[in-house]
Design goal:
479 residues, alpha/beta, Aminopeptidase, Alpha-Beta Plaits, seven-stranded mixed sheet, 39% helix, 18% strand, globular
């Protein structure tokens, strides 16, 4: 590694206390979808202190912001998330399911780490630009509401990412690898059913039950699952049953549906079929319904040029080292987990070189993973992310690093429990160095960005991206 690049990455070690303190503060103050006021204040304060030019209220979202340094091309973006999940409060470092405060949010997807790791990477690229003046811009994006709010989707629709030559991001996990799994497109709608209230015993014939309509819709969707492609997904949550009195015919009920497919056009087609089921339920019950569009996300366009660059830097950066305390906490938490699923072992099975696979298999049953997975073939996954919308605007590369015990389920209390641990901090700083090193490489060789953009255009096709979120739909920002 050349001295200039190595020195740029040293800022991550110099700022280690600042970065880990930021991450812990976010863990201590979890904020959900579009309510991330404390996180926004913290990030903007630190960005200004570190010499970034801060812009707030991006896309007219109060908790969306950016920090910029430099000028000219290539323009490199780092994506940061910081929202928590509702109802996942959990005591830090605790190997029992004990909430800090019952019913409150918790960082069950590691976003307290995610944004800070990306900020560390942006600091490294900024350091290089300061010490090697020339063309190049680095922008850190504070992206709210990834969990259920499609923050990046609304930002992308508003043109926030249009100036980027490329973007880089990461996600906490159990393995150290480049993301080669395509995420699914989705759309989320809230179906409102409206009926007529009546006394359920004295005058039932006068009532029209919205709850009946909702239940019939859900039953119809169960049958629809048998006749949709096997790689599509439908999930729902009943958000309002119309009341708690069985003696009243419920005049209102609501159900939230999340509709997924590998491609955006297919998600739209499946949504149209779900709408027909809702219409049928309303006809059967003589009620009415309204489908309220909440949010949507595009499917992910991968970029092998950026993936190869990130893989190169994974193999150049010194590997993770976990201590006895990290491993003990990991073992104790693994003992609380049901099942034996391991994303790491799933990845190892895809490694084609038998010698490399054999080496990785030696670590497959370890409580924490330090080895780097080689660049894997591209596959279709089942998760969704609003990073997909950014990937339809510019080339995007992503990585994952080990911040949690092997086999930890996302959105679990165990993931919240390790969010302030040494293993989480180490994985976060490791991710910052890999991403930061890739950013410096792009400044050293701008042709990487040119090749990434050419590949992006070839994969996306000639048509410009159109946001899946209708123009009249805005983010659900609390008043």
């Amino acid at each position: 590694m050349i001295p200039g690049k190595l020195h740029a990455l040293s800022v991550i070690d110099e700022k280690q206390a600042l970065l880990t303190d930021m991450s812990d503060y976010l863990w201590d103050h979890p904020e959900v979808c579009y309510t991330e006021k404390l996180a926004t204040e913290l990030y903007c304060t630190v960005l200004e202190q570190e010499g970034f030019q801060v812009e707030k209220n991006l896309a007219e979202i109060p908790t969306a912001f950016s920090g910029r340094f430099g000028s000219g091309h290539p323009v490199i973006g780092f994506l940061g998330e910081f929202d928590a999940l509702p109802g996942l409060s959990q005591k830090a470092g605790c190997t029992e399911k004990i909430p800090e405060e019952a019913g409150k949010p918790g960082h069950g997807c590691g976003h307290n780490l995610l944004g800070v790791g990306s900020l560390g990477a942006a600091m490294a690229v900024k350091r290089y630009l300061e010490e090697n003046p020339g063309d190049g811009t680095v922008i850190f994006f504070g992206c709210p509401a990834e969990e259920g709010g499609a923050g990046k989707g609304f930002m992308a629709r508003a043109g926030v990412f249009d100036e980027l030559d490329l973007a880089i991001s990461w996600h906490p996990g159990e393995s150290n690898s480049v993301a080669t799994e395509r995420t699914m497109a989705n759309c989320q709608l809230l179906y409102h059913f409206y009926g007529t209230a009546s006394h359920a015993a004295i005058s039932p014939e006068m009532g029209r039950s919205a709850l009946d309509a909702l239940e019939l819709m859900n039953t119809g969707v169960q049958y629809l699952r048998e006749h949709m492609p096997s790689d599509h997904r439908l999930h729902y949550a009943i958000t309002d049953t119309g009341g708690s009195s069985p003696g009243t015919v419920q005049p209102y009920a609501a159900v939230l549906y999340l509709i997924r497919a590998p491609k955006l056009a297919d998600a739209v087609k499946l949504r149209e079929r779900v709408d027909k089921v809702a219409l049928g339920a309303s006809i059967m019950t003589e009620t009415t319904f309204q489908a309220e569009f909440i949010k949507a996300a595009s499917d992910m366009i991968l970029n092998r040029t950026l993936n190869e660059l990130l893989q190169k830097n994974f193999e150049e950066i010194p590997p993770l080292v976990f201590d006895k305390e990290d491993r003990k906490l990991a073992r104790d938490l693994i003992a609380t987990m049901k099942g034996d699923y391991s994303y790491y072992r799933e990845q190892v099975e895809m490694v084609q070189d038998p010698d490399i696979r054999a080496d990785l298999e030696q670590e497959s049953h370890a409580e924490l993973h330090t080895k780097v997975i080689p660049l894997l073939p591209e596959t279709q996954g089942f998760a969704s992310s609003d990073v997909g919308d950014v990937s339809n605007v510019c080339p995007v590369g992503q990585i994952g690093t080990a911040t949690m015990p092997a086999g930890t389920s996302m959105h679990s209390w165990q993931e919240v429990a390790v969010g302030k641990s040494g293993m989480a901090h180490k994985g976060m700083l490791y991710a910052a160095k890999v991403m930061g090193a890739a950013g410096v490489d792009i400044l050293l060789d701008p042709s990487i960005a040119v090749r990434a953009k050419a590949e992006f255009k070839a994969r996306r096709g000639p048509d410009r991206w159109v946001s899946p979120i209708p123009e009249e739909v805005g983010p659900r920002i609390p008043k």
